[in-house]
């Protein structure tokens, strides 16, 4: 079964405009009125429509949306009001039609519109919102340990590429380099964050105490003087 287009509501408005038959729904009717009569009856809906008809704005915004960026994050980075985002996602890019991440990947991979938009959609799906936030003006500081951890993980999984290649292949040789990087970063992370090891030990100790049935001397139900040796 082919998934529904995330533009299904706007496509219905386009069909209504061609038939000169007003659609149902307040927001749909506003876009219809703008398209047919040029009458902006709801400024917030018109704002969302303006974002859609601008190719660059549409591409950037939809990359954030398909990457599951919180609306609060989009508001902070792109400066778009919450109400406008709500209308945009309802009318122009309803990602709730995707039943799983695979359908998002397929949508981005098969996108036939603007090449820049296609690349941004793929970036949003495969890399996630953090990269988009950084690209478009986010100034959140990145913890050094986070950088080392991410590069360590990425290098490790890139090294896993050898599993489907021969021992003497170029891919396998490159995989060894990636694993060397992963090991080096793991060592750096251990030096930077030794507390992580201590924390793991403490969590284990607490978990064991939770099931420890040993009774201390103070908690003994029988006085020590009455215990026979």
Supply the number of structural domains. Answer: 2
Helix/strand/pairing category: mainly alpha
Please, how many helices? Answer: 12
Indicate the overall shape.
Answer: elongated
Q: What's the helical proportion of residues? A: 55-70%
Q: Write down the secondary-structure element order.
A: HHHHHHHHHHHH
- Strand portion, in percent? under 5%
- Uncertain spans, ≥5 residues at pLDDT below 50? none
Determine Rg (CA atoms, Å).
Answer: 28 Å
Task: Quickly list its features.
229 residues, mainly alpha, 2 domains
Can you offer a commentary on this structure?
The protein is built from twelve helices and no strands. It has 229 residues and is mostly helical. The chain folds into two domains: 8-135, no CATH class; 144-208. The longest helix has 23 residues, at 170-192. The N and C termini lie far apart (77 Å). 19% of the residues are buried.
Record the SSE blueprint.
Blueprint: H1 8-19, H2 26-37, H3 43-53, H4 55-66, H5 71-78, H6 82-91, H7 101-109, H8 115-126, H9 129-135, H10 144-159, H11 170-192, H12 195-211
Helix pairs in contact: 1-2, 3-6, 4-8, 7-8, 10-11
Summarize the structure.
With 229 residues, the protein is mainly α.
